[in-house]
Amino acid sequence: MFGFQKLDVYRCAVMFLGVASTLAERVPRGHSALADQLRRAALSVRELGARRFPNAA
What is the pTM of this model? Predict the structure, then answer.
């Protein structure tokens, strides 16, 4: 396990990614751009934490 994976904010971001993915699957047809944006935002939050705190204890 990397140090940043121990941070509460990273763990919350991973949980948010799961919730966002579930919500994105439920978005009605015709709104796929919204689902895509939700997935990308969730991934971005998670990746930002990993980049900003790579050596967190």
Answer: 0.67
